[in-house]
Amino acid sequence: MAEQQIPNLDGNFYRNLRKYYPTVDRGEGVYIWDTDGNRYIDGSGGACVVSIGHGVKEIREAMLKQADRISFAHGSHFTSEAAIECSEQVVSLMPSPELNKCYFLSEGSTAIETAVKLARQYWREAGKPDKFKTISRWTSYHGNTAGALALGGHTARRRHYQPLILHTPHIEPAYCYRCSFEKTPETCNLECADALERMLKYEGPDSVSAFIAEPVVGATAGALVPKDGYWQRIRAICDQYDVLIISDEVMAGVGRCGQNTALDNWNVVADMVVMAKGLSSGYIPLGAVVVKEKIWETIRRGSGAFVHGHTYSMNPLAMAVGAAVLKYVKEHDLVRKAREMGQYLLEQLHTLRNLEIVGDTRGIGMFCGVEFVRDQTTKTPFDPKLKVNAKVFQAAFQRGLITYPGSGGADGIQGDHTLICPPFIITREQVDTLITLLREAIETVTQELYV
Ligand code: PLP
């Protein structure tokens, strides 16, 4: 594939202003083609979005059927049959009947902002107006809108926008490969969960409305799976100090981690579950916050209105697509497939550990990651200026494999990494091809780094 060095000059404001982007043509199953006829395995489902595969006819039909009726009616004027069906589908994924009220948005970031505002308004209406802080974690990602960025804990992403807009105390992540407390799996006593209690005492629990975290960290760290017991302890601490748990399942949710919600892996029920990406499998922009009835009921009995709203919330077209995608996930048993094929994917990723620059391979369900290091024994990351993640991405892309790269933080304490999170429908043979291409890409970059 020809690599052009000149930037596109066609009026689009791209993310990377110095890069050439091929033009996408079409997609089917796990594959994407560009207009030059190159085929790619979508090994990352875009940005961990596509779960049911590309080009599913049932979704196209649901979209057209709804468009034939009506595409837009404002959420402050109407509900729709599609919205009711979509809510029912979403609620049916929840691990507890308490989680039974949905608020729809058009993506993850605004869904996160919505959850944070809901938490504050809930406590205010419950008679605790001072609970205004949200605690989050370093090495996390919650979106790019100003509030979500402040919650996030990726130093390189935050750097250009300091000072950030919310007061959001951060605690250490559950990052077993690089434990902030220098523990091993054998000596670990979930110190990273206890960090929440310490922070609550420091900030004053009466000032904290919620703790927000990704059950499995995605974009900023390459699929960090916490140790068993972590989430149970977080739940106990939040219960003790009257703090809500907002589970950011924008990447990890809707089956991606092999269960309906990611926290189902630890039998923990959050107070709010935030979803996007897999909710519509990328067929239309869609996000949602599902909240416990007590939150909805407190606001309903109090002021009676959640002071919020976005133009495209709950628009009928998005609702019809969301409902159709979730129906498709169920009818094709795709959560089980994510769980089972994800196990095979992870086993195969582990075979890459014999490559010189692979420090760690990890994941759960169809949500896996590889972390790159300069030294496997000391776990020393590469200098971020070398852009190892981008190099691996490019080498894989040129071979027809799409991955989702992430850099270490600006402070260089974590390594470059890549997410491998294909659609749930990927076959064993396609996983094998993905691994072969990834291995070749990593080997090529290793040679470049050491010449
Ligand atoms: N939260 C998490 C965990 C994410 O991974 C993302 C996006 O990658 C977001 C929130 C923000 O979602 P969006 O990009 O749809 O605004």
Automatic annotation (TrEMBL):
Organism domain of life: Bacteria
Pfam family of the protein (one): Aminotran_3
Entries under InterPro entries matching the protein: Aminotrans_3, Aminotrans_3_PPA_site, PyrdxlP-dep_Trfase, PyrdxlP-dep_Trfase_major, PyrdxlP-dep_Trfase_small
GO MF annotation terms: pyridoxal phosphate binding; transaminase activity
Signal peptide as annotated in the record: none
Keywords associated with the record: Aminotransferase, Pyridoxal phosphate, Transferase
UniProt-listed PANTHER family: AMINOTRANSFERASE, AMINOTRANSFERASE CLASS-III
Membership in a protein family: Belongs to the class-III pyridoxal-phosphate-dependent aminotransferase family.
This protein's name: Probable aminotransferase
Origin species: Vecturithrix granuli
Taxonomic classification: Bacteria, Candidatus Moduliflexota, Candidatus Vecturitrichia, Candidatus Vecturitrichales, Candidatus Vecturitrichaceae
